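agent> Task received from the user: take the single chain below, predict its 3D structure, and emit structure tokens. No templates, no multimer pairing.
agent> Plan: (1) validate residues, (2) run structure prediction, (3) serialize to tokens, (4) report one or two observations.
agent> Step 1 OK, no nonstandard residues flagged.
tool_call: predict_structure(input=
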Amino acid sequence: MNTLRITAFILLGLTGLFSCVQKTHSYPVRFVLDVSHIPNVSEVAIRGSNRPLTWENDFPMQTLVKDSLYVAEITFVTGYLGAEVKFVVNGQFELSGQENRRFRFDTSSDTTVYKAVFDKIKH
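)
tool_result: status=success, residues=123
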């Protein structure tokens, strides 16, 4: 029994020694969404893959220019270099049946600025 405990302790120690914990960084992102082509905008939000965003809950965006531009300032604390998002207007997800928007954090700037038009992908 004592040998079993010692073996378990050694294995646990080795697991901790060799496990990789990815270092996290803070990445502030300013999302700017153009909804000027949509009538009767009442709610604008964003959802995504990295906290504080989730795919289950809206993160509300604030009015920058009524019925035209909305903004959200979000700081991601992650070990990843990017994230995936989709915007939600009046409860409706954009890009139905299409892949999520993917972007990389701008590590050369204090804040990444991500500009988008609802339900449209730049090519």
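agent> Step 4: summary for the user.
The longest strand covers residues 25-34.
agent> Done.
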